[in-house]
Specification:
By secondary structure, the chain is an all-alpha fold. It has two domains: about 100 residues, no CATH class; about 80 residues, Arc Repressor Mutant, subunit A. The chain contains seven helices and no strands. It starts with a helix and ends in a 12-residue tail after the last helix.
Length: about 200
Amino acid sequence: MDVAPKHAQSQDASMLKRTSEQRLKVFMQEVTGRALVMMESATQGQHGIAMDLVQEAFIALHGAYSDRPSEQWYPLFYTILNNKLHDWRRRAMRRAHPFSFFKKVSLDDEDLAVQDVVDESALNPLEFLDQAVTAEEIQAAIQQLPLRQQQAFMLRAWEGFDTQTTAHIMNCSEGSVKTHYHRAIQGLRATLAHLNPHLGGSST
């Protein structure tokens, strides 16, 4: 009996698995830091929960999409991560309000889109570092934003996703993304204005 073909197939499968594992490792190294910042902001600085959410998203990505091209992993990962975050928020809300299942609970503070809002081109977050504005101050300012504004800002300005992809990740309309992003920019500029004259305030 000729077992060479099966042996070759087994080797090919093993090599593909190793290649996938290597690609995923590189991907994780690249996005973990930014994803943690995003989740820490969304969970109000709960580092342990943020790490759990990111890890769960990586596990789900590996389990369902390990055979996809690496460039497809970025929106897939953040879509999964967004869903994990909303699941966690629902559980936390139900623990805090055990009878909340009797009424519909909205997790979005401003889902109504303002259609005439212009979606500003994605900002480089490093611009906020001018004039001694630190990363810690930026993160603190982001944490003050409503969750959907945080997500829109981080996905558009931090990760560089376009409006359409961001809308898919956030499971909302492009108009809502524009609204959340516009309001996030306004909120951050107001919060950081006293630290950075380029944002409309004074550094003194």
